[in-house]
Amino acid sequence: MTRRYGLTRGDRWVLSAALLALAAAWAALGGDEGGMALVTQEGRVVARLDLERPTRLTVDGPLGQTVLEVAEGRVRFLSSPCRGQLCVHAGWLSQGGAFVACLPNGVAVRIAARSERYDAINF
Questions:
Q1: Which ranges of 30-69 would DSSP assign to H, the alpha helix?
Q2: Cα angle at 120 between 78 and 37, to 5 degrees?
Q3: Whole-angstrom Cα distance, residue 37 to residue 25?
Q4: Rounded to an integer, what distance in angstroms lies between the CA atom of residue 84 and that of residue 88?
Q5: Measuring CA to CA, which residue among 100, 63, 67, 69 is closest to residue 82?
Q6: Which residues, listed in sequence order, are joined to residue 44 by a DSSP beta bridge?
Q7: How far apart, in whole angstroms, are the C-alpha atoms of residue 54 and residue 71?
Q8: Percentage of the chain with pLDDT > 90?
Q9: pLDDT digits over 40-96, tens only?
Q10: Rounded to an integer, what distance in angstroms lies between the CA atom of residue 12 and that of residue 108?
Q11: CB atoms within 10 A of CB 82
């Protein structure tokens, strides 16, 4: 048996198989990149944003204007009149099922995709 870097031929086969299994699991569990963002204001859909088209959208809410930005296949709250700015600090969304909302201003964004990932499911 030939040893290269302390590995036998069997070790190399096992390592190769493990790397292939890891790559397959990563592809299967990675989720879809979202293709569209659904913007709601107080529960009704006000816009469907194509994540491949860079744009800015202003949504009027009870507190004022919320500005959303789409760039490079992702979306974020650029600015909002709310006090805590949690929606702005949430950053960019790109994975299917990702959701962020500005509750005080009643604006929410969800990434729609064929396969969505969830952190938790509540009933």
A1: none
A2: 35
A3: 26
A4: 9
A5: 63
A6: 41
A7: 5
A8: 54
A9: 998 899 999 999 999 999 999 999 999 999 999 999 999 999 999 999 999 999 988
A10: 50
A11: 20
Burial of 109 (0-12, 13-18, 19+ CB in 10 A): buried
7-11, 56-60, 97-101, 104-108: segment of lowest average pLDDT: 7-11
29 with 21: CB under 8 angstroms? no
Has residue 123 got a pLDDT over 50?
Answer: no
Residues paired with residue 32 on neighbouring β-strands, in sequence order: none
List all residues 6 or more positions away from 95 whose beta carbon is below 8 Å from its beta carbon.
31, 32, 33, 34, 111, 113, 117
The structure tokens listed for 123 are 């009933």
Tokens of 4: 């290269």
Q: Please, are residues 37 and 48 in contact by the beta-carbon 8 Å criterion?
A: yes
Residue with tokens 């292939």: 20
